[in-house]
């Protein structure tokens, strides 16, 4: 039974790993641990975190430092992998290159169905959702011969000839000279009234006219009066009582 030989690192690979270890510690682990440790210590002192009864803030600060160290190593892992893949004759580098190349191939590979869809025309593609155009607004409307008002003129209820107002009659404008002449005639008539002996029919008061008309109407409907007859005897002679 053949036994597998253990993997051996080359000198270049060990040099790169040693550089990655130092660089990750100084550039990532130390800053992260310091920031988390100081922040945790400040939180315990201000009362935001409860300290330990026996050890105080030490356990929480130690845990924060360890978490910062691990975060620094994990964040620098990508940089170290790129350095190993950059080595030309490294077996570890070739393994990492094939591994990451396979991942890239999986992410960049397009399925055959998508390739077919890309090569097809827009009209040949099947879609569950019907695409409607903004220009076919009236295509889905039901058509009724007697109720189609697409090309019918709008009806205005105020445009009916019955509701139109008749124009007012136009009178000729009265000039200032005409008004002066009328006023002068009225003034002359009123001024000469006290010196007249006979009244003009237009000047008779309306109350007098109405009284005369009323008296005439009453006389028209009054029955004719019967003549007074004197009493007579059997011989036809009249005699006074």
Automatic annotation (TrEMBL):
Task: State the superkingdom.
Answer: Eukaryota
One GO cellular component assignment for this chain's record is: endosome
Pfam name, any one = OCIA
Basic and acidic residues biased stretches:
177-191
Q: Which residues form the OCIA domain?
A: 7-91
Q: Where is this region: Disordered?
A: 158-241
Q: What is this protein called?
A: OCIA domain-containing protein
Provide the species name: Cimex lectularius
Tell me the organism's taxonomic lineage: Eukaryota, Metazoa, Ecdysozoa, Arthropoda, Hexapoda
């Amino acid at each position: 039974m053949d036994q597998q030989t253990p993997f051996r690192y080359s000198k270049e690979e060990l040099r790169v790993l040693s550089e990655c270890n130092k660089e990750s510690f100084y550039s990532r682990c130390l800053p992260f641990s310091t920031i988390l440790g100081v922040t945790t210590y400040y939180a315990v002192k201000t009362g935001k975190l409860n300290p330990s009864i026996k050890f105080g803030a030490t356990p929480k600060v130690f845990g924060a430092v360890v978490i910062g160290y691990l975060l620094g190593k994990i964040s620098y892992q990508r940089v170290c992998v790129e350095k190993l893949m950059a080595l030309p004759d490294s077996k570890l580098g070739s393994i990492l290159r094939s591994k990451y190349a396979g991942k890239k191939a999986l992410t960049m590979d397009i399925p055959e169905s998508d390739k077919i869809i890309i090569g097809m025309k827009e009209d040949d593609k099947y879609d569950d959702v019907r695409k409607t155009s903004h220009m076919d607004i009236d295509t889905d409307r039901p058509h009724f011969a007697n109720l189609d008002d697409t090309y019918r003129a709008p009806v205005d209820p105020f445009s009916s000839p019955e509701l139109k107002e008749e124009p007012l009659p136009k009178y000729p404008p009265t000039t200032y000279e005409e008004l002066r002449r009328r006023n002068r005639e009225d003034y002359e008539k009123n001024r000469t009234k006290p010196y007249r002996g006979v009244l003009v029919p237009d000047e008779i008061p309306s109350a007098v006219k109405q009284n005369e008309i009323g008296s005439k109407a009453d006389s028209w409907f009054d029955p004719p009066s019967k003549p007074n007859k004197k009493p007579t005897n059997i011989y036809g002679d009249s005699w006074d009582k």
